[in-house]
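Schema walkthrough. Field components (list of strings):
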Amino acid sequence: MLLALILSTLVCINDSEDKPHVKSKEEYRVYDETTPEQVKDFYRLNHTHQTVDFVLKKEKEYLPLRHKKMGIWEALSIFDTLVDESDPDLGLPQRYHLFQTAEAIRRDGYPRWLILTGLIHDLGKLLTFFGESQWAVVGDTFPVGCAYSERIVFPEYFNANPDKEVPIYQTKYGIYSEGCGLFNVHMSWGHDEYLYQVVKNYLPFEASYIIRYHSFYSAHLHGAYKHLMSEKDKEMLWWLELFRRYDLYSKTEEKIDLDSLIPYYEDLISEFFPSELDW
Ligand code: FE
Ligand code: FE
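Field assembly_structure (string):
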């Protein structure tokens, strides 16, 4: 198992047919002056507009879920055309990313619920089809209503956020208290929180937790925000770290044969989900 996990951090990418390039861990999530302009622009918008007020407004707008009724498979089919503008590591439509993630988890012998988590974890990006801008859907998430961690990507972009001028929002605990638990913290609005709300009644707790916090990189990659976490949250970091390896390092520009995978995944989806869910 350990060997499989180590191997899963190295991914082959075909630069050309005869000269495969092995992308190392360090080549993923590079956020510095070499980051593509489109990704920087994305984070400029995201960090400027994700305020406490904005998050509360979106929670009201989408919850309880009332936008659409559809099954998981139908949601997946919409992903044929969506490309994530915040992602420096993948230019393929999102549907490939979901199957790449699930297949990598399946190859390493993890339980069916975790494979399913890989398959669906980004379906919340459907928010873009409800008219949301990408900055309100994708990218890393972070708590609003308390001080921004320096471990969030491009933290300097928060200087343009109106919450920067609200003193209580810039204290360590902000509107929260020590150890209050992430379930009591408002995260920047996006696909994690939205999909969590859609699927939480159908999946094991670990699965819905992974979905809810998989983009909270400052916490699960850099150890930030422990002061807001409950003991349970700290336990769950293990799952977020495990899932990250598959979410991140399974990204390649290689197009896998999706058609051959359909029967297996139809079966997996129907094991956990009804034919229609509220979105
Ligand atoms: Fe995601
Ligand atoms: Fe993902």
